[in-house]
Design the sequence.
């Protein structure tokens, strides 16, 4: 069977990662967490003290290779050969990643790496522009959404589970700020692809959301298989 690409898009906290991992695991596809790559660059730029210097960030991203390894429910992230997995989900990275993700040269380099990863096998790609820019010809495009309140509650819970003490209002403000930057930036703004399936999960459990989507995915895969067998 030829390679299948499923792309999942949506705003921060919409449940993309959870759903993408579940779909990838159920289908035995490779899970491609593109956000982790923007986070890795942000972490490095913060470490080097060049976060406000776009030219220096451009140079940095051109000189390195980001790779991902999905293992036991966790995406391990490597920059060249150094693992940065444990550092890319801090509140500090969270608050700066949108700025890095708005840099056209950073996007160009990371999209190139992502498309390369997509050539290897069946994948579930998750992230902001995966349905519109990285894989515009994906076999199936999904757009997940939820209200700002629900998305903030989910992120807040994630922080608490990791032992990070943070006020929910701060999380909400962060999400609003990121939504604004992500949807108004010039390069690859967050938007729903025309032919994407849209699901609003504000009033759905993860399981309900997954079942709705998985029905669509199964139908699509059956259709692809039947076309191949014709
Ligand atoms: O999905 P996430 O929260 O890990 O994404 C981190 C940031 O990177 C977020 O601000 C959106 C941005 N991003 C992007 O611009 N394009 C992608 N393909 C993935 C993430």
Sequence:
């Amino acid at each position: 069977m030829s390679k299948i690409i499923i792309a999942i898009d949506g705003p921060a906290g919409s449940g993309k990662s959870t759903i993408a991992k579940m779909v990838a695991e159920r289908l035995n596809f490779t899970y491609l967490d593109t956000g982790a790559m923007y986070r890795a660059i942000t972490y490095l730029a913060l470490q080097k003290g060049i976060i406000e210097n776009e030219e220096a960030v451009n140079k940095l991203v051109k000189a390195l290779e980001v790779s991902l390894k999905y293992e036991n429910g966790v995406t391990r992230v490597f920059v060249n050969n150094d693992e940065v997995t444990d550092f890319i989900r801090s509140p500090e990275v969270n608050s700066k990643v949108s700025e890095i993700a708005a840099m056209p040269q950073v996007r160009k380099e990371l999209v190139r790496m992502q498309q390369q990863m997509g050539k290897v096998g069946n994948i579930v790609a998750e992230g902001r522009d995966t349905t519109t820019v990285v894989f515009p010809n994906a076999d199936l495009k999904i757009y997940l959404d939820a209200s700002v309140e629900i998305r903030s509650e989910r992120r807040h819970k994630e922080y608490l589970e990791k032992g990070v003490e943070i006020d929910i209002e701060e999380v909400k403000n962060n999400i609003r700020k990121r939504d604004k930057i992500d949807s108004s930036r010039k390069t690859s703004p967050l938007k729903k692809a025309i032919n994407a399936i849209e699901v609003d999960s504000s009033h759905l459990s993860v399981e309900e959301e997954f079942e709705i989507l998985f029905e669509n995915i199964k139908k699509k895969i059956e259709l692809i298989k039947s076309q191949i067998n014709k």
Observations:
- The mean pLDDT is 91.
- The chain has one domain: 5-202.
